[in-house]
Design a protein that fits this description.
There is one protein chain. The longest helix is centred in the N-terminal third of the chain and has 38 residues. The protein is elongated. By secondary structure, it is mainly α. The protein starts with a helix and ends with a helix. Helix content is 88%, strand content 0%. The chain has four helices and no strands. Helix 1 runs antiparallel to helix 2, helix 1 runs antiparallel to helix 4 and helix 3 runs antiparallel to helix 4.
Length: 122
């Protein structure tokens, strides 16, 4: 029984780690596509598609955090972090759609930093 719980916790932790890596990578790619947005004709489409992928990665992070916590008996702290991150991602999307770069860009930098921090903590 203890071996099964340990294996479940390990799988949940691996999934959580993968979700954080994916989220961090998608945020970084959003920064790259923001640069392309300023310099090329296809940058807007790339940034728009990337925003959807980044938001999906944030939802995946929350799912992974819940799955690592509930069946594996881990700490609920990653669930709170992932929930906060999904809220930040939602605000980021709204600011992007509203074309408020004075808040959208700094929030993107903050999100990248927080995602790297979450990655370093794992």
């Amino acid at each position: 029984m203890a071996t099964q719980v340990t294996a479940t916790a390990q799988r949940g932790s691996t999934f959580l780690q993968t979700a954080i890596v994916l989220q961090t990578l998608t945020i970084f790619l959003q920064a790259v596509s923001a640069g392309l947005l300023l310099t090329s004709s296809y940058g807007e489409v790339l940034h728009s598609v990337g925003a959807r992928v980044m938001y999906g990665a944030s939802m995946l992070y929350l799912l992974a955090a819940v799955l690592a916590w509930k069946p594996g008996g881990g700490s609920p702290r990653p669930v709170w972090h992932a929930t906060g991150f999904l809220v930040l991602a939602s605000v980021q999307v709204v600011l992007g759609i509203a074309h408020v770069p004075s808040l959208h860009l700094p929030l993107g930098v903050l999100m990248f930093g927080l995602s790297v921090l979450a990655l370093a903590r794992r």
